[in-house]
Amino acid sequence: MTDPAVDVLWKKALDAWDDEARHGAFIEYCQATGQLLEAAVRYRGMAGDHARGASAQKRLGGIAVLALSALETARAPERSGLATLTRVAAILLFLAGSAALLFALNRR
Hints:
Layout: H1 4-15, H2 20-32, H3 36-46, H4 53-75, H5 81-106
Helix pairs in contact: 1-2, 2-3, 3-4
């Protein structure tokens, strides 16, 4: 079962192939609703078209980047502000200690 909004947005993109805004709306909707695979399938189907193939391939590349970005975001653990602050404090403490040690060694 396909999403009717995807069908409508795709038809608009097909009807005005050179209109970047229509393709952007289609891809943004697919991204927001977790349907990037559907967008990729539709653009892949156009890749063999003589007049539209290069443009479809370009958009497929963009969809791949969006999909990989979503995977990275989902894979990365969420860090709390406190954990980040603790790491920064530890790094600063280490750097201060290293600087003090170097200063002490240079005074000899």
